[in-house]
Structures are given as structure tokens and as C-alpha cells.
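Let us practice reading a record.
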Amino acid sequence: MKEIGPAISVVVPCYKAVRWLPECMDSLFEQTFEDFEIIFVDDGSPDATGKLVDDYAAKYPQVKTLHQKN
């Protein structure tokens, strides 16, 4: 049987969000549900948002990132 993927996908749009992302991420990982993924969409943010979400993706297997131009 083919695996479908996580039961829940949380999509977090990010633009100039480096200041708030650690609190957001902490909140998401404090949930008791375990079958989930987090997809950060970096909308071409000019600050360090893209690097921060990439750092989270390298550290947590549930995190995926998507970078696009604004």
C-alpha cells in the first residue's frame, strides 16, 4: 500500500517574519498531535526569514520550505 503522507499539513506564509518565527515554531511543536508537516512559504522576504526556515528544515524532518519571489 502506498503511503499517503502526514495527516495534517500546516502552511505558514512568511514575509519579514524572522522576529516571530521562533515563537510560531515553538507553538507548532508543542502540539500533542504527531502526524503532521509544516510547510514554510518564504515569499521573497528581504530579511533572514529564508535562512531561518531552511535552518528549521535541516533540524526537523517535519518541516519543508518553499522559496518564491515576491
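A brief commentary: The chain has a mean pLDDT of 92.
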